[in-house]
């Protein structure tokens, strides 16, 4: 895992300052502390740079990126991992291709030479974000992995096209405008992002499974976007004959074991994140069976019994003989690291578990590890989240009686009472645009969309006026592919929408890559091996949610591997206790609010309305406010703190200067 950056000028004769490329690499030093490189194709106005985290081929000189082909026709900068690369390399070698490194990146150059980029993409298995420039076509292509595990951003300036693994990388370029957009602010304050957008004006995210293709026409660059992969849940009419449960389980077992084996491939030790959930526990169990020595397992614990999972995680670690390392975090401690976390997430957060994850990855790094396997993706594939199961109950159980559905819904909401007002909306909401597209408004979006009126009141009058006639639900609906939604089962629709919205921007972004790579930590989500996913989307809905059992097929397939208590335990979302749950956390949150949400700070940033901010803080402190509403207000306060810190980090600060200073401190300089 690494960080990439690059520039393509409108005018090919316009020179590229190599110091800018070096600075763009230096500002993401946390993604690649093991060295940097840059290359410029002078007569084409194209330059790439790279900050390297050594995981495959530890030879600093041999595997230094960017890679330029011997012919000078192709240049590549790559962030991520290609699994199964040894087999592909052997196949290419047998066809006469010669490799200079042991890096998995080099195979992309030869594979695309043999098959073309479009032909090579189906063979790439893993998580990645890469840039490839083809001189013969005068074409730059950005490619992001199928699920968005690895981030990749781009913008267009008067000088040309700029890209990078993080937003701050783009902002290190002097020509890139730095401004929080009104619509971006609106979505940051409600947590819910439109796919492909960011908080910042003119800065876009490459979407999962997509290519951004940049071609020069005269002295003007043109950008087009193409999708090369999508989930493609089966149409209801194509689901075919029902197979025995055991047939599905055996295929799941085979594909899952293969995925874990592939994710263990590295030239450095691989550890596991371990919570009290089925996902990380099954990964740990298979990983332990694959290795001769005990697997290192890292767990985070909280000082609130309602949210702490260390006791049940210990059972799994003991069952497989893992070497478990637990970092215990108190809720007040989390707020000390809030601003540092926002520097890395580059977007708002609604719960401080993001900060806990940052501290966990820091602990793992200090313990001498830089690769871990994680359980992201399981809830998305097997309907683990309560919001997905609620949609199944309400819209996907045609054979159930009204009484049966009411009983299941009552059970689900009671068993997830801690998340009322957050993961589950306090009251049902219907968004006309989403309902028109999907047939219902997915529960995963309802709690955040329900905060829209309150969010409008929070915004500075100028920003509020700019979004007065804007519909966030309509914007999200417009960004979704209707051909991937029409004719599908209700649960398939709910999972698809979650994966395309909250999963990419939340779970994989600010709870995943951004806080892991903040500490030079590569996290590998085994459940997101795409052959496993392509099988999982074919699973009948009743195998994902049956009775009171979430992720039914995964539990049953791995039943023999799991301790009884874990097998019987319902899905519990990984969350940190909200600030209103004890006095220490409230005090810590208030200290941050006194600094970042003071009237003076709010007026300087010009993003929020000071009077409305005060009203939220007063209502949150009022003990007569219900727990569900205080939970939602806790998220709103976290969002307000986030956007204020984003302004301080990315707007008020001189990022090009900061990047140059970082390069100087590192000793990274133009050759």
UniProtKB/TrEMBL annotation:
<dbReference type="GO" id="GO:0005829">
    <property type="term" value="C:cytosol"/>
</dbReference>
<keyword id="KW-0067">ATP-binding</keyword>
<feature type="active site" description="For GATase activity">
    <location>
        <position position="2"/>
    </location>
</feature>
<feature type="domain" description="Glutamine amidotransferase type-2">
    <location>
        <begin position="2"/>
        <end position="217"/>
    </location>
</feature>
<dbReference type="Pfam" id="PF00733">
    <property type="entry name" value="Asn_synthase"/>
</dbReference>
<protein>
    <recommendedName>
        <fullName>asparagine synthase (glutamine-hydrolyzing)</fullName>
        <ecNumber>6.3.5.4</ecNumber>
    </recommendedName>
</protein>
<dbReference type="GO" id="GO:0006529">
    <property type="term" value="P:asparagine biosynthetic process"/>
</dbReference>
<keyword id="KW-0315">Glutamine amidotransferase</keyword>
<feature type="binding site">
    <location>
        <position position="104"/>
    </location>
    <ligand>
        <name>L-glutamine</name>
    </ligand>
</feature>
<keyword id="KW-0547">Nucleotide-binding</keyword>
<keyword id="KW-0028">Amino-acid biosynthesis</keyword>
<dbReference type="InterPro" id="IPR001962">
    <property type="entry name" value="Asn_synthase"/>
</dbReference>
<feature type="binding site">
    <location>
        <position position="300"/>
    </location>
    <ligand>
        <name>ATP</name>
    </ligand>
</feature>
<dbReference type="InterPro" id="IPR006426">
    <property type="entry name" value="Asn_synth_AEB"/>
</dbReference>
<comment type="similarity">
    <text>Belongs to the asparagine synthetase family.</text>
</comment>
<keyword id="KW-0436">Ligase</keyword>
<keyword id="KW-0061">Asparagine biosynthesis</keyword>
<dbReference type="InterPro" id="IPR029055">
    <property type="entry name" value="Ntn_hydrolases_N"/>
</dbReference>
<dbReference type="GO" id="GO:0005524">
    <property type="term" value="F:ATP binding"/>
</dbReference>
<dbReference type="InterPro" id="IPR051786">
    <property type="entry name" value="ASN_synthetase/amidase"/>
</dbReference>
<dbReference type="Pfam" id="PF13522">
    <property type="entry name" value="GATase_6"/>
</dbReference>
<dbReference type="GO" id="GO:0004066">
    <property type="term" value="F:asparagine synthase (glutamine-hydrolyzing) activity"/>
</dbReference>
<dbReference type="InterPro" id="IPR033738">
    <property type="entry name" value="AsnB_N"/>
</dbReference>
<dbReference type="InterPro" id="IPR014729">
    <property type="entry name" value="Rossmann-like_a/b/a_fold"/>
</dbReference>
<feature type="binding site">
    <location>
        <begin position="374"/>
        <end position="375"/>
    </location>
    <ligand>
        <name>ATP</name>
    </ligand>
</feature>
<dbReference type="InterPro" id="IPR017932">
    <property type="entry name" value="GATase_2_dom"/>
</dbReference>
<feature type="site" description="Important for beta-aspartyl-AMP intermediate formation">
    <location>
        <position position="376"/>
    </location>
</feature>
<comment type="pathway">
    <text>Amino-acid biosynthesis; L-asparagine biosynthesis; L-asparagine from L-aspartate (L-Gln route): step 1/1.</text>
</comment>
């Amino acid at each position: 895992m690494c960080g990439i950056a690059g520039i393509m000028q409108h005018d090919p004769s316009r020179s590229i300052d190599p110091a800018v490329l070096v600075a763009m690499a230096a500002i993401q030093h946390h993604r690649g502390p093991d060295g940097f490189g840059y290359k410029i194709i002078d007569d084409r106005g194209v330059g790439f740079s790279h900050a390297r985290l050594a995981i495959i081929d530890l030879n600093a000189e041999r595997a230094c990126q960017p890679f330029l082909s011997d012919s000078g026709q192709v240049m590549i900068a790559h962030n991520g991992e290609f699994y199964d690369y040894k087999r592909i390399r052997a196949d290419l070698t047998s066809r006469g291709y010669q490799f200079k490194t042991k890096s998995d990146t080099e195979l992309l150059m030869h594979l695309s030479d043999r098959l073309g980029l479009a032909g090579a993409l189906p063979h790439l298995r893993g998580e990645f974000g890469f840039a490839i420039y083809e001189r013969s076509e005068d074409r730059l292509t950005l490619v992001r992995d199928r699920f968005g595990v690895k981030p990749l951003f781009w913008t267009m300036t008067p000088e040309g096209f700029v890209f990078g693994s993080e937003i701050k990388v783009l902002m290190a370029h002097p020509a890139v405008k730095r401004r929080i957009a009104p619509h971006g602010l609106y979505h940051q304050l409600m947590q819910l992002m439109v796919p492909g957008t960011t908080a910042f004006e003119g800065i876009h995210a490459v979407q999962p499974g997509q290519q951004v293709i940049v071609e020069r026409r005269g002295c003007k660059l043109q950008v087009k976007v193409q999708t090369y992969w999508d989930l493609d849940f089966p149409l209801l009419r194509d689901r075919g004959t029902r197979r025995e449960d055991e047939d599905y389980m055996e295929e799941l077992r085979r594909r899952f074991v293969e995925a874990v084996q592939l994710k263990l491939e590295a030239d450095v030790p691989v550890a596991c994140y371990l919570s009290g959930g089925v996902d990380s526990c099954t990964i740990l169990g298979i990983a332990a069976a694959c290795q001769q020595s005990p697997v290192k397992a890292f767990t985070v614990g909280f000082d609130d019994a309602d949210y702490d999972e260390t006791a049940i995680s210990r059972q799994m670690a003991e069952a497989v003989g893992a070497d478990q390392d637990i970092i215990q975090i108190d809720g007040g401690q989390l707020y000390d690291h809030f601003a540092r976390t926002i520097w890395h997430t580059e977007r708002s957060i609604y719960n401080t578990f993001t900060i806990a994850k940052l501290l966990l990855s820091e602990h793992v790094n200090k313990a001498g590890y830089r690769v871990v396997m994680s359980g992201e993706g399981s809830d998305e594939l097997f309907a683990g989240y309560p919001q997905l199961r609620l949609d199944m109950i309400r819209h996907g159980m045609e054979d159930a009686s009204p009484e049966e559905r009411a009983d299941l819904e009552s059970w689900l909401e009671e068993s997830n009472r801690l998340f009322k007002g957050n993961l589950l909306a306090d009251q049902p909401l219907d968004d006309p645009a989403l309902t028109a597209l999907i047939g219902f408004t997915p529960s995963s979006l309802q709690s955040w969309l329900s905060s829209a009126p309150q969010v409008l009141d929070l915004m500075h009058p100028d920003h509020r006026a700019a979004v007065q006639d804007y519909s966030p639900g309509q914007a999200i609906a417009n960004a979704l592919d209707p051909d991937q939604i029409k004719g599908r089962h209700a649960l398939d629709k709910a999972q698809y929408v979650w994966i395309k919205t909250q999963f990419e921007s939340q779970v994989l972004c600010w709870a995943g890559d951004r806080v892991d790579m903040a500490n030079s930590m590569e996290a590998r989500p085994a459940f997101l091996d795409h052959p496993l996913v392509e099988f999982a989307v074919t699973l009948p809905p009743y195998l994902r949610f049956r009775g009171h059992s979430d992720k039914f097929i995964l539990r049953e397939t791995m039943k023999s591997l799991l301790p009884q208590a874990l097998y019987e335990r319902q899905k519990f979302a990984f969350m940190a206790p909200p600030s209103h749950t004890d006095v220490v956390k409230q005090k810590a949150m208030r200290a941050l609010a006194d600094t970042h949400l003071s009237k003076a700070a709010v007026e300087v940033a010009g993003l929020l309305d000071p009077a409305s901010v005060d009203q939220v803080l007063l209502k949150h402190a009022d003990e007569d406010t219900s727990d569900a509403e205080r939970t939602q207000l806790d998220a709103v306060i976290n969002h307000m703190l986030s956007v204020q810190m984003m302004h301080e980090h990315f707007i008020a600060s001189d990022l090009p200067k900061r990047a140059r200073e970082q390069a100087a401190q590192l000793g990274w300089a133009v050759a």
